[in-house]
From TrEMBL:
Pfam families: Aminotran_3. Its cofactor is pyridoxal 5'-phosphate. Keywords: Aminotransferase, Pyridoxal phosphate, Transferase. PANTHER family: AMINOTRANSFERASE CLASS III, ORNITHINE AMINOTRANSFERASE, MITOCHONDRIAL. CDD domains: OAT_like. One of its GO terms (molecular function) is identical protein binding. This is ornithine aminotransferase. It is an enzyme of class 2 (transferase). Residues 480-507 are annotated as: Disordered. GO terms for cellular component: cytoplasm. Pathway: Amino-acid biosynthesis; L-proline biosynthesis; L-glutamate 5-semialdehyde from L-ornithine: step 1/1. Belongs to the class-III pyridoxal-phosphate-dependent aminotransferase family. The gene is Oat. GO terms for biological process: L-arginine catabolic process to L-glutamate; L-arginine catabolic process to proline via ornithine; L-proline biosynthetic process. It comes from Dipodomys ordii (Ord's kangaroo rat).
Length: 507
């Protein structure tokens, strides 16, 4: 059955996160003489030559997207269930959001905050009323929202709580991810994020996630201004806390006069089946961070929501952004929020996520340890192979495309997952994901189950983690790209492949 899988076309090598093309010896300079649009191979080579090597992307070059689909430069069509890490929850190039961007582009795009503009106030009124906060501070990226929240928390700690100047502390949970600035990595427990980038931000303390006693102990320190936490940890592997955890966080922060900061950049905006993930426990944080789907993937827009007591501690000139609150971004954000509301995408995410998990839980328990998540933010945990250098080939037979460690997207027709060790796959499809796409998944998972087989893998292709998978609809192309956690010396030469008609993977 799998004999046809032997013919694999290598397109990239991942060497500690560096994407080095090995598919052809043809130089980029020579490629310039080729007529017609660039091939995927040429695009890989050009990026490797001229771009920073801070990502190791999946070996597919996309040029067009619509709804839950994307097309590569060769015209192959794919389901996209990675959704740009959740930024295109409304689907690629949603017509209402695109139209809002085009219309505003012809009028006014940027003024800076040195002037008023006629769109910012409209956006501020809309978003604050929608989420029931008194003020919003518009920024551009999720990490900027996190930085803003930290500044607000410190300023509030000094001016309202009465913490001695420059003694304020902020608590974070282990496994958090909110960006890659120096502040963000100072709160990280992932060596890939922080190793070699010190010294780090003072006043940041880390406690275990989903551990209320640990939080209570940390809050005994009167210098603590805030606790910043993800309602569900996305990049850590879609870690869902115990029921009542967020209620406990709210109660403890209130009792000890510390701000509860909810990082909803990934979990918010209908992703988990509610407008905000904290809504599952009916708690109201002091500060909420939004981003990603706030613009539907068309423009970088983020927001920090809180009430006057916190927001007005920052005065004119003390914080800002040239692009934050620009009329183009504001108009796009209004349209993106309206799409979520008008198309009732939170309810759809709740319904589809429940169905997806119920079907995935029917997969064999000797290999699939856990299926977890809320709405359309989910993960599958693959059981440990106890150090044996083998892989489980899992034919999940469910609808979907690109998925991988800490990443997302439901499974696809004849999707295969290669995984070594204790690993998982997260997925976050566009929230317009429908029964038409999902029902065949459940049927195939129920009727055919999963196919498991041992595979002998060369030691130079062994890496921790799980593979990103994809499949193109017309020709059954499969994509694979390993996500390394921490290099252990033997993982250097992890390879990424593309194969026609067969699974891709590396372990």
């Amino acid at each position: 059955m799998f004999s046809k899988l032997a013919h694999l076309k290598t397109v990239a090598v991942l060497r500690r996160g560096v994407h080095i093309s090995v598919a052809s010896a043809t130089s980029v300079a020579a490629k310039k003489t080729v007529q017609g649009p660039p091939s995927s191979e040429h695009i890989f080579e050009r990026e490797a030559k001229y771009g920073a090597h801070n990502y190791h992307p999946l070996p597919v070059a996309l040029e067009r997207g619509k709804g839950i689909y994307v097309w590569d430069v060769e015209g192959r069509k794919y389901f996209d269930f990675l959704s740009a890490y959740g930024a295109v929850s409304q689907g690629h190039c949603h017509p209402k959001i695109v139209n809002a961007l085009k219309t505003q582009t012809d009028k006014l795009t940027l003024t800076s905050r040195a002037f008023y503009n006629n769109v910012l106030g409209e956006y501020e009124e809309y978003i604050t009323k929608l989420f029931n906060y008194q003020k919003v501070l518009p920024m551009n990226t999720g990490v900027e929202a996190g930085e803003t929240a930290c500044k607000l928390a410190r300023r509030w700690g000094y001016t309202v709580k009465g913490i001695q100047k420059y003694k304020a502390k902020i608590i974070f949970a282990a496994g958090n991810f909110w960006g890659r600035t120096l502040s963000a990595i100072s709160s990280s427990t992932d060596p890939t994020s922080y190793d070699g980038f010190g010294p780090f931000m003072p006043g940041f303390e880390i406690i275990p996630y989903n551990d209320l006693p640990a939080l209570e102990r940390a809050l005994q320190d009167s210098n603590v201004a805030a606790f910043m936490v993800e309602p569900i940890q996305g990049e850590a592997g879609v870690v869902v806390p115990d029921p009542g955890y967020l209620v406990g966080v709210r109660e403890l922060c209130t009792r000890h006069q510390a701000l509860f900061i909810a990082d909803e950049v990934q979990t918010g905006l209908s992703r988990t089946g509610r407008w905000l993930a904290v809504d599952h426990e009916n708690v109201r944080p002091d500060i909420v961070l939004l981003g990603k789907a706030l613009s539907g993937g068309l423009y970088p827009v983020s927001a920090v929501l809180c009430d006057d007591e916190i927001m007005l501690t920052i005065k004119p000139g003390e914080h800002g952004s040239t692009y934050g609150g620009n009329p183009l971004g504001c108009r796009v954000a209004i349209a993106a929020l309206e799409v979520l509301e008008e198309e009732n995408l939170a309810a759809n995410a709740e319904k589809m996520g429940t169905l997806l998990r119920s079907e995935l839980q029917k997969l064999p328990s000797d290999v699939v340890a856990t299926v977890r998540g809320k709405g359309l933010l989910n993960a599958i945990v693959i059981r440990d192979t106890k150090g044996r250098r083998r892989c489980w080939l899992v034919q999940a037979s469910v609808e979907g495309v690109q998925w991988g460690e800490g990443r997302s997207g439901p499974l696809s027709p004849s999707t295969r997952l290669w995984a070594c060790g204790s690993s998982l796959s997260g997925r976050r499809p566009a929230l317009l994901f429908s029964l038409k796409a999902l029902t065949p998944s459940g049927e195939k998972a129920h009727h055919t189950g999963a196919v498991f087989s041992n595979a002998k893998v060369p030691s130079d292709r062994v890496t921790q983690g799980v593979v990103h998978i994809g499949t193109a609809l017309p020709d059954s192309w499969f994509l694979g790209s390993g996500e390394q956690q921490e290099s252990n010396g033997s993982n250097d030469a992890a390879a990424s492949h593309i194969a026609k008609g067969g699974p891709m993977g590396l372990c």
